[in-house]
Specification:
Shape: globular
Bound molecules: benzoyl coenzyme A
Structural class: mainly alpha
Mean pLDDT: 96
Order of helices and strands: HEEHHHHHHHEEHHHE
Low-confidence stretches: none
Number of strands: 5
Strand content: 5-15%
């Protein structure tokens, strides 16, 4: 059976680990059949499969039925530095094993990371039924199988480094369910439904992008197996992000084309800009929460112990000091009816720093989308909501701000939500636009065609062979 698990972690040389994974694999496959993409398990999909870090390409491309996908376990190549390069363990040799004193924290980080992966597959399991094109359908399934591989990556770490507790956590990953009343996924954005493809594109834009920043922070870890697992995951993640960013761009482009012709997008089944804006407000604000509190003792502990660094900690010129003890982060808080400055000791502000990098990255994409509006001679612009808007975690949680970040009273906030967040009518309208299109080369009317195909293939390639 294990020859079906491609790996570069020497599984063959570790019989105990093999047995643990052998017990977990059938449960994983049962979970995939129950919670993976519904209705397409018998079809052959043109997919990329990671094969490792050899001298050739790190992935192969071929048709495969999704339950036969070869989910592998891979570490990226060793890092150039072999010592810890931030926090209190600066200069020590990187760890191959989990230090006893950080076992709880590392397990928590790995479980939190791992839990998001199957969650996203569950959130997206019905979207294949309303895909706007065969290429998009393929892209959805690519994202799904790779998120499932990311679960494998975290389960490998749990099985190989955390003994019985790790095995129990690995089982729990398959037992929790996105959106379940009694047994939900750990982080809130992973319990939100993704009813339609605009939500899917926003999710792969905004939520997968949180994934990019969290994985990057973990890939700086002193615990080398975690760092190299997450580094490998980032290679796959880049595609998921491009699905989101280009997907949103295609929706904006279609709407802009229709508006340029002087038509109301609703009259031709395209998506009005204000609805797109509401989806941004919903998904971006949900994703800000994924960074945790701006002032966080957990974050300080993770950094101090060398478990989780800053984005590109090792190379980024902004961080000449890898100790993080002598600086502070300035945040603005609204207290007693006025703004005041709050100084957060830098180590406690690691979540805020990561969120700032994330927001800058989102703004870069936003500038491109607004460029599409400009190209079509339109004066309207899309915006990113303030990091104070609609927060449930951190400094601005349970306070009331508008999407520009201005404080408002509760009544104005509740009234404003109808303008700022999607209503049931908006969801219904978007869902109504989602007419499935499975003919090679054809695309639904609410979204512009992709600019290119996948791998070496064009737009009219038969990316899914229906059984
Ligand atoms: N929801 O100190 P605080 C991805 C809890 S996405 C619910 O402010 P901390 C992907 C927290 O547990 C990336 N609870 O925050 C994307 C704590 O509880 P305790 C996933 C939350 O701990 C798309 C309390 O509130 N990876 O890969 O510094 C598709 C105070 O927490 C939330 C990771 O997240 C929340 N949003 O940071 C597929 C990386 N936020 O201690 C995949 C691993 C906080 O009071 N995780 N809490 O019981 C972490 O690094 C950290 O756990 C977090 C939170 C950044 C999530």
């Amino acid at each position: 059976m294990l020859d079906t698990i491609p790996n570069n972690v020497n599984l063959e040389g570790d019989p105990k680990l093999q047995r643990a994974l052998q017990r977990w694999q059938p449960d994983f496959l049962n979970w995939w059949r129950e919670m993976g993409p519904e209705g397409f398990q018998a079809d052959r999909v043109y997919l990329r499969t990671a094969v490792g870090m050899g001298s050739g390409d790190w992935a192969q491309y071929d048709y495969v039925k999704m339950p036969d996908y070869r989910w592998g376990i891979f570490l990226a190549n060793p890092r150039k530095k072999d010592h810890v390069y931030f926090g209190d363990h600066f200069g020590e040799k990187l760890w191959d094993q989990v230090p006893g004193e950080y076992r709880k924290e590392l397990r928590r980080l790995i479980v939190t990371q791992g839990d998001t992966e199957p969650a996203s597959v569950e959130q997206q399991r019905l979207l294949g039924k309303i895909a706007p094109s065969l290429l998009d359908l393929r892209n959805l399934f690519q994202v799904n199988v790779e998120e499932a591989r990311h679960l494998w990556a975290m389960v490998y770490l749990l099985h190989s480094h955390f003994g019985k507790d790790g095995r129990e956590e690995a089982e729990e990953m398959l037992a929790r369910r996105s959106g379940h009343k009694d047994h939900p996924r750990i982080l809130q954005a992973f319990n939100k439904p993704q009813r339609d493809w605009l939500a899917f594109f926003c999710f792969t834009m905004f939520t997968d992008r949180d994934g990019k920043y969290q994985l990057a922070a973990l890939s700086e870890s002193a615990f080398d197996p975690l760092a190299r697992s997450t580094q490998f995951m980032l290679m796959e993640e880049a595609f998921h992000l491009s699905v989101g960013e280009t997907g949103v761009g295609r929706v904006v482009r279609r709407t802009a084309e229709v508006m340029k012709e002087g038509k109301d997008p609703r009259s031709v089944g395209a998506i009005p800009l204000e609805v797109i804006q509401k989806y941004f407000n919903e998904w971006a604000s949900a994703c800000y929460d994924l960074f945790g509190g701006e002032d966080s003792s957990n974050a300080a502990t993770y950094f101090a112990n060398g478990l989780k660094g800053r984005f590109d900690e090792i190379n980024d010129k902004r961080y000449p000091d890898h100790n993080g003890l002598d600086a502070a982060y300035g945040a603005k808080v609204w207290e007693n009816e006025r703004w005041s400055d709050k100084e957060i000791p830098l180590r406690r502000a690691m979540n805020a720093l990561l969120l700032d990098d994330y927001v800058a990255d989102c703004n870069r994409a936003l500038t491109r989308w607004n460029g599409i509006l400009e190209e079509h001679g339109l004066s309207e612009r899309l915006t990113l909501p303030s990091t104070r808007f609609n927060r449930s975690v951190g400094l601005y949680a349970d306070q009331h701000y508008d999407p520009e970040g201005n404080p408002v009273d509760e009544a104005a906030y509740n009234k404003g939500l109808a303008r700022w967040m999607p209503s049931q009518d908006d969801y219904d309208y978007v869902l109504q636009c989602m007419v499935p299109v499975y003919e090679p080369g054809k695309v639904a009317g609410w979204v512009a065609p992709p600019t290119r195909g996948f791998g070496s293939h064009g737009l009219d390639f038969e990316y899914v062979l229906f059984h």
